[in-house]
Amino acid sequence: MERKNQYVLITGASSGIGYELARQFAQNGYDLVIVARDHETLKSKADELKNYGVNVIPISKNLFLQEEAYSLYSELKMNAISPEILVNDAGQGGYGKFQDTDIHREVDIVNLNIISVIILTKLFVKDRLPKGSGKILNLASVASKVPGPWHSVYHATKAFILSWSEAIREELKDSGISVTALLPGPTNTDFFNKADMNRSKILEDRESLASPEEVAIDGYKALMNGDDKIISGLKNKLSVAMSNLSTDSMAARNMAEMQKPVTEK
C-alpha cells in the first residue's frame, strides 16, 4: 500500500457508512481525522484503523452544535493539518408524523444534517482554494429525491444537501476542488434505531437493506472519479428513476405507504 501523506476528515466515522468510508481511505493509504460524539467508541475505531498503517486522529465533537464544527477546524489548524478530502457523513433522522414529533429533535437534525455540513464545507473550501486541490463527499440519500411522509424533516435535509452540493460543484469547477454527492438507500446501520424508526414498513424485510461496505465502496469510487453524484445500488437507481416519472404528490403517497408504521392501516 502506498502512503498518500494526505489527511481525510470524516464526520460520523464511528459506525455505519462513515466507518466503512474510513476503512476505504485507510486501505488506500490515506491518513484520517475521524469525528464522532462518543469518545470511547471513536478511540476504539481509531485503533482498528491504525492497523492499516496510517495515522488516525480521533476528535470527539457534537456536531448538533455549530460552535463544535468551528472548533473542529480550529483544532486542525493548530495541528497544521489541512485535509485534502472532506467527507460529511454525520446525519440523523426522526420518525413520525410532523404534528407529533419533537421540535427540539428536529432542530437538532437540521443543525447536524445541514448547518454543521455547510460550516465544515465552507472552512474546507476556504482552506483548499489557495492550494488548488481537494475533494468533498456529501452524504445525501435517495430520500433527497422524494418527499418523505413519516420522515419529512430528514428527507428535506437531504434534498437540501443534494441541491446545494450540485450548486457548489458548479461554482468550484475550475478550482481543482470536486464535490460528489452519495445517495444510498435503506442501509443496514444504526440509523433506524437512532431515528426511532424500527416500526416502519420499510424495515419489514431487513435482509434487503444494503451493506454499509457496499455503499462506502460506491462512494469512494465516485469521489475518486470526480463524479457529481452516485446512487448506490441497482434497486435504488430503479426506484429513483420511477419516482422521477411520477408527480410529487404521487411520490409522496407511495413513500407514505412504504414508511408508515406496520400497525397503520
Which key phrases capture this entry?
seven-stranded parallel beta sheet, alpha/beta, 9 helices, globular, 265 residues, Rossmann fold, 14% strand
Protein topology:
Layout: E1 7-11, H1 16-27, E2 31-36, H2 39-50, E3 56-60, H3 66-78, E4 85-88, H4 103-128, E5 134-139, H5 152-171, E6 177-183, H6 191-194, H7 212-225, E7 229-231, H8 234-245, H9 248-259
Parallel strand pairs: 1-2, 1-4, 2-3, 4-5, 5-6, 6-7
Family: Belongs to the short-chain dehydrogenases/reductases (SDR) family.
Keywords: Oxidoreductase
Pfam family, one: adh_short
Structural commentary:
By secondary structure, this protein is α/β, with parallel strands linked by helices. The chain has a single domain, classed as Rossmann fold (3-Layer(aba) Sandwich), CATH 3.40.50.720. It is 47% helix and 14% strand. The protein is built from 9 helices and 7 strands, in the order E-H-E-H-E-H-E-H-E-H-E-H-H-E-H-H. The protein has helices at residues 16-27, 39-50, 66-78, 103-128, 152-171, 191-194, 212-225, 234-245, 248-259, and strands at 7-11, 31-36, 56-60, 85-88, 134-139, 177-183, 229-231. The protein has a 7-stranded parallel β-sheet, sandwiched between helices. Strand 1, helix 1 and strand 2 form a beta-alpha-beta unit. It is globular. The mean pLDDT is 93.
